[in-house]
Amino acid sequence: MSDDVEIVHVVHGRSIAETLRDALRSQGCEERVIGLSGDLNYGPIDPPDPDVRQAWIRTVLRCDPADDRREPEAPWTDATSAAVYPVFWVCMRNAGEQASFLEFAYRMAGRPFDVVDATGLDHITLDGIRSPRSLGSMRKQDIVAFDLRAKRRTFSGPERDAASAGWSRLRRENAPLRVVRDGRLVSAPLTHFDAVLVGQAEEEWEVVARLIGRAIRHLTFDVDPPDQGVGDVVLFGRVRALGDMGALEVRGAGPGMRDHEVRRPAGHGLA
Question: Which of 6, 70, 212, 243 registers the highest number of CB atoms within 10 A of its CB?
Protein backbone atom coordinates (compact mmCIF):
# COMPACT_ATOMS: atom_id res chain seq x y z
CA MET A 1 0.00 0.00 0.00
CA SER A 2 1.40 3.38 -1.05
CA ASP A 3 1.88 6.01 1.64
CA ASP A 4 -0.14 8.53 -0.38
CA VAL A 5 -3.26 6.32 -0.58
CA GLU A 6 -5.99 7.47 1.79
CA ILE A 7 -7.15 4.91 4.38
CA VAL A 8 -10.92 4.87 4.80
CA HIS A 9 -13.03 2.85 7.22
CA VAL A 10 -16.15 1.25 5.74
CA VAL A 11 -19.26 -0.10 7.49
CA HIS A 12 -22.85 -1.01 6.73
CA GLY A 13 -25.15 1.95 7.31
CA ARG A 14 -24.96 5.56 8.38
CA SER A 15 -25.80 4.92 12.04
CA ILE A 16 -22.92 2.47 12.53
CA ALA A 17 -20.65 4.87 10.65
CA GLU A 18 -21.45 7.67 13.11
CA THR A 19 -20.73 5.43 16.11
CA LEU A 20 -17.46 4.18 14.62
CA ARG A 21 -16.41 7.71 13.67
CA ASP A 22 -16.93 8.85 17.27
CA ALA A 23 -14.98 5.86 18.60
CA LEU A 24 -12.05 6.46 16.27
CA ARG A 25 -11.96 10.19 17.04
CA SER A 26 -11.85 9.42 20.76
CA GLN A 27 -8.72 7.36 20.04
CA GLY A 28 -7.08 10.14 18.05
CA CYS A 29 -7.83 8.64 14.64
CA GLU A 30 -9.09 11.20 12.11
CA GLU A 31 -9.40 8.81 9.14
CA ARG A 32 -12.60 8.99 7.14
CA VAL A 33 -15.55 6.65 7.80
CA ILE A 34 -17.99 5.67 5.02
CA GLY A 35 -21.41 4.17 5.74
CA LEU A 36 -22.67 2.06 2.83
CA SER A 37 -26.31 2.30 1.81
CA GLY A 38 -28.84 -0.46 1.27
CA ASP A 39 -30.23 -3.39 3.25
CA LEU A 40 -29.07 -6.13 0.89
CA ASN A 41 -30.35 -8.99 3.06
CA TYR A 42 -33.75 -8.54 1.40
CA GLY A 43 -35.03 -7.64 -2.04
CA PRO A 44 -33.56 -8.22 -5.50
CA ILE A 45 -29.79 -7.93 -5.93
CA ASP A 46 -29.52 -8.92 -9.60
CA PRO A 47 -29.42 -6.41 -11.12
CA PRO A 48 -28.07 -4.34 -8.20
CA ASP A 49 -30.34 -1.43 -9.11
CA PRO A 50 -31.67 0.82 -6.30
CA ASP A 51 -34.73 1.73 -8.36
CA VAL A 52 -35.59 -1.94 -8.90
CA ARG A 53 -35.18 -2.57 -5.18
CA GLN A 54 -37.38 0.38 -4.25
CA ALA A 55 -40.07 -0.82 -6.66
CA TRP A 56 -39.88 -4.30 -5.07
CA ILE A 57 -40.35 -2.82 -1.59
CA ARG A 58 -43.41 -0.90 -2.80
CA THR A 59 -45.02 -3.75 -4.73
CA VAL A 60 -44.01 -6.90 -2.83
CA LEU A 61 -43.77 -5.55 0.72
CA ARG A 62 -46.36 -2.85 -0.05
CA CYS A 63 -44.34 -0.31 1.87
CA ASP A 64 -43.46 3.20 0.75
CA PRO A 65 -39.71 3.51 1.46
CA ALA A 66 -38.88 6.46 3.67
CA ASP A 67 -36.26 8.96 2.59
CA ASP A 68 -33.68 7.42 4.92
CA ARG A 69 -34.05 4.08 3.13
CA ARG A 70 -32.90 5.44 -0.23
CA GLU A 71 -29.80 3.71 -1.55
CA PRO A 72 -27.41 6.26 -3.05
CA GLU A 73 -24.57 4.85 -5.11
CA ALA A 74 -22.04 7.48 -4.03
CA PRO A 75 -20.85 5.76 -0.80
CA TRP A 76 -20.15 2.54 -2.71
CA THR A 77 -18.23 4.37 -5.42
CA ASP A 78 -16.24 6.24 -2.77
CA ALA A 79 -15.45 3.14 -0.68
CA THR A 80 -14.25 1.06 -3.65
CA SER A 81 -12.31 3.81 -5.42
CA ALA A 82 -8.76 2.99 -6.49
CA ALA A 83 -7.73 6.19 -4.71
CA VAL A 84 -8.43 4.74 -1.24
CA TYR A 85 -7.39 1.74 0.83
CA PRO A 86 -10.49 0.42 2.64
CA VAL A 87 -10.76 -1.13 6.09
CA PHE A 88 -14.12 -2.88 6.35
CA TRP A 89 -15.66 -3.29 9.82
CA VAL A 90 -18.25 -6.07 10.12
CA CYS A 91 -20.02 -8.55 12.37
CA MET A 92 -20.92 -11.57 10.24
CA ARG A 93 -23.69 -12.66 12.63
CA ASN A 94 -25.88 -9.92 11.20
CA ALA A 95 -27.41 -10.69 7.79
CA GLY A 96 -27.48 -7.05 6.68
CA GLU A 97 -23.84 -6.46 7.59
CA GLN A 98 -22.66 -9.69 5.97
CA ALA A 99 -24.63 -8.90 2.79
CA SER A 100 -23.07 -5.44 2.60
CA PHE A 101 -19.60 -6.91 3.18
CA LEU A 102 -20.02 -9.53 0.43
CA GLU A 103 -21.26 -6.94 -2.06
CA PHE A 104 -18.27 -4.77 -1.14
CA ALA A 105 -15.82 -7.66 -1.66
CA TYR A 106 -17.48 -8.43 -4.99
CA ARG A 107 -17.14 -4.81 -6.14
CA MET A 108 -13.48 -4.69 -5.10
CA ALA A 109 -12.88 -7.28 -7.85
CA GLY A 110 -9.92 -8.91 -6.14
CA ARG A 111 -8.20 -5.70 -4.99
CA PRO A 112 -6.74 -5.87 -1.46
CA PHE A 113 -8.39 -4.42 1.62
CA ASP A 114 -8.30 -4.91 5.39
CA VAL A 115 -11.04 -6.12 7.70
CA VAL A 116 -12.02 -5.68 11.35
CA ASP A 117 -14.25 -8.66 12.15
CA ALA A 118 -16.17 -8.49 15.43
CA THR A 119 -17.86 -11.86 14.91
CA GLY A 120 -17.87 -14.00 18.04
CA LEU A 121 -15.61 -11.71 20.06
CA ASP A 122 -16.81 -11.52 23.67
CA HIS A 123 -15.91 -8.29 25.39
CA ILE A 124 -16.33 -6.91 28.88
CA THR A 125 -18.49 -3.82 29.35
CA LEU A 126 -20.16 -2.12 32.28
CA ASP A 127 -23.12 -4.43 31.58
CA GLY A 128 -21.03 -7.58 31.79
CA ILE A 129 -19.63 -9.87 29.10
CA ARG A 130 -21.28 -9.30 25.74
CA SER A 131 -20.89 -10.86 22.30
CA PRO A 132 -21.89 -8.35 19.62
CA ARG A 133 -24.95 -9.28 17.59
CA SER A 134 -23.90 -6.63 15.12
CA LEU A 135 -21.71 -3.56 15.02
CA GLY A 136 -24.98 -1.67 15.35
CA SER A 137 -25.46 -3.18 18.83
CA MET A 138 -22.09 -1.81 20.00
CA ARG A 139 -21.69 1.57 21.62
CA LYS A 140 -18.73 3.87 21.11
CA GLN A 141 -17.33 2.89 24.50
CA ASP A 142 -17.64 -0.80 23.61
CA ILE A 143 -15.61 -0.36 20.43
CA VAL A 144 -12.94 1.53 22.37
CA ALA A 145 -12.90 -0.74 25.43
CA PHE A 146 -12.49 -3.86 23.31
CA ASP A 147 -9.88 -2.09 21.13
CA LEU A 148 -11.42 -3.33 17.91
CA ARG A 149 -8.84 -1.33 15.95
CA ALA A 150 -6.25 -3.87 17.07
CA LYS A 151 -8.24 -6.63 15.32
CA ARG A 152 -7.52 -5.13 11.90
CA ARG A 153 -5.93 -7.56 9.46
CA THR A 154 -5.48 -8.03 5.74
CA PHE A 155 -8.32 -9.94 4.10
CA SER A 156 -6.39 -12.59 2.18
CA GLY A 157 -6.63 -13.36 -1.51
CA PRO A 158 -8.40 -16.71 -1.00
CA GLU A 159 -10.84 -15.03 1.40
CA ARG A 160 -11.56 -12.31 -1.15
CA ASP A 161 -12.17 -14.92 -3.84
CA ALA A 162 -14.51 -16.90 -1.58
CA ALA A 163 -16.49 -13.82 -0.58
CA SER A 164 -16.88 -12.71 -4.18
CA ALA A 165 -17.94 -16.20 -5.26
CA GLY A 166 -20.45 -16.40 -2.42
CA TRP A 167 -22.05 -13.13 -3.45
CA SER A 168 -22.10 -14.21 -7.10
CA ARG A 169 -24.08 -17.28 -6.05
CA LEU A 170 -26.53 -15.20 -4.04
CA ARG A 171 -26.95 -12.82 -6.96
CA ARG A 172 -27.79 -15.71 -9.28
CA GLU A 173 -30.33 -17.06 -6.79
CA ASN A 174 -31.73 -13.53 -6.33
CA ALA A 175 -34.02 -14.67 -3.52
CA PRO A 176 -36.36 -12.28 -1.72
CA LEU A 177 -34.54 -12.80 1.61
CA ARG A 178 -31.06 -13.71 2.81
CA VAL A 179 -30.36 -15.05 6.31
CA VAL A 180 -27.31 -16.32 8.21
CA ARG A 181 -26.93 -20.10 8.59
CA ASP A 182 -23.79 -21.62 10.14
CA GLY A 183 -22.05 -18.28 9.70
CA ARG A 184 -22.87 -18.03 5.97
CA LEU A 185 -25.42 -15.90 4.20
CA VAL A 186 -27.96 -18.08 2.39
CA SER A 187 -31.07 -17.45 0.34
CA ALA A 188 -34.50 -17.77 1.96
CA PRO A 189 -38.11 -17.53 0.73
CA LEU A 190 -40.32 -14.52 1.41
CA THR A 191 -42.34 -16.64 3.87
CA HIS A 192 -39.27 -17.40 6.03
CA PHE A 193 -40.44 -15.38 9.06
CA ASP A 194 -44.20 -15.99 8.74
CA ALA A 195 -44.43 -18.72 11.38
CA VAL A 196 -42.68 -16.48 13.92
CA LEU A 197 -45.09 -13.62 13.27
CA VAL A 198 -48.14 -15.86 13.67
CA GLY A 199 -46.66 -17.53 16.74
CA GLN A 200 -45.89 -14.20 18.39
CA ALA A 201 -49.30 -12.67 17.68
CA GLU A 202 -51.82 -12.25 20.49
CA GLU A 203 -55.52 -13.06 20.31
CA GLU A 204 -56.37 -9.51 21.35
CA TRP A 205 -56.00 -6.52 19.02
CA GLU A 206 -52.71 -4.66 19.33
CA VAL A 207 -50.75 -2.16 17.28
CA VAL A 208 -48.72 -3.96 14.59
CA ALA A 209 -45.54 -2.24 15.80
CA ARG A 210 -45.82 -4.16 19.09
CA LEU A 211 -46.03 -7.52 17.33
CA ILE A 212 -43.07 -6.66 15.12
CA GLY A 213 -40.97 -5.55 18.08
CA ARG A 214 -41.76 -8.78 19.90
CA ALA A 215 -40.93 -10.86 16.82
CA ILE A 216 -37.59 -9.11 16.35
CA ARG A 217 -36.69 -9.73 19.99
CA HIS A 218 -37.66 -13.40 19.61
CA LEU A 219 -35.54 -13.74 16.46
CA THR A 220 -32.63 -11.98 18.17
CA PHE A 221 -32.52 -14.00 21.36
CA ASP A 222 -34.78 -17.05 21.34
CA VAL A 223 -34.38 -18.93 18.06
CA ASP A 224 -31.59 -21.19 16.86
CA PRO A 225 -29.60 -19.69 15.28
CA PRO A 226 -30.29 -16.32 16.93
CA ASP A 227 -29.64 -12.84 15.55
CA GLN A 228 -31.55 -13.16 12.31
CA GLY A 229 -31.10 -9.44 11.66
CA VAL A 230 -34.45 -8.90 9.91
CA GLY A 231 -35.92 -5.39 10.03
CA ASP A 232 -39.38 -3.97 10.47
CA VAL A 233 -39.88 -3.26 6.75
CA VAL A 234 -39.86 -6.97 5.84
CA LEU A 235 -41.94 -8.01 8.85
CA PHE A 236 -44.55 -5.30 8.28
CA GLY A 237 -44.94 -6.43 4.69
CA ARG A 238 -45.41 -10.02 5.84
CA VAL A 239 -47.97 -9.06 8.50
CA ARG A 240 -50.09 -7.47 5.79
CA ALA A 241 -49.65 -10.51 3.53
CA LEU A 242 -50.64 -12.83 6.39
CA GLY A 243 -53.71 -10.68 6.87
CA ASP A 244 -54.65 -11.27 3.22
CA MET A 245 -54.12 -15.02 3.76
CA GLY A 246 -56.31 -15.09 6.86
CA ALA A 247 -53.48 -16.33 9.09
CA LEU A 248 -53.71 -12.99 10.95
CA GLU A 249 -56.45 -10.42 11.22
CA VAL A 250 -55.24 -6.94 10.30
CA ARG A 251 -57.18 -3.70 10.33
CA GLY A 252 -56.34 -0.03 9.84
CA ALA A 253 -56.05 2.55 7.09
CA GLY A 254 -52.27 2.87 7.30
CA PRO A 255 -49.84 3.77 6.01
CA GLY A 256 -47.47 2.81 8.85
CA MET A 257 -47.28 -0.09 11.26
CA ARG A 258 -48.55 2.13 14.07
CA ASP A 259 -51.66 2.83 11.97
CA HIS A 260 -52.62 -0.85 11.80
CA GLU A 261 -53.79 -3.31 14.43
CA VAL A 262 -53.35 -7.09 14.34
CA ARG A 263 -54.50 -10.20 16.15
CA ARG A 264 -54.30 -13.96 15.67
CA PRO A 265 -57.66 -15.58 14.98
CA ALA A 266 -58.56 -17.93 17.81
CA GLY A 267 -57.34 -21.44 17.08
CA HIS A 268 -55.89 -20.38 13.73
CA GLY A 269 -52.32 -20.77 12.47
CA LEU A 270 -50.46 -21.14 9.21
CA ALA A 271 -51.90 -23.60 6.74
Answer: 212
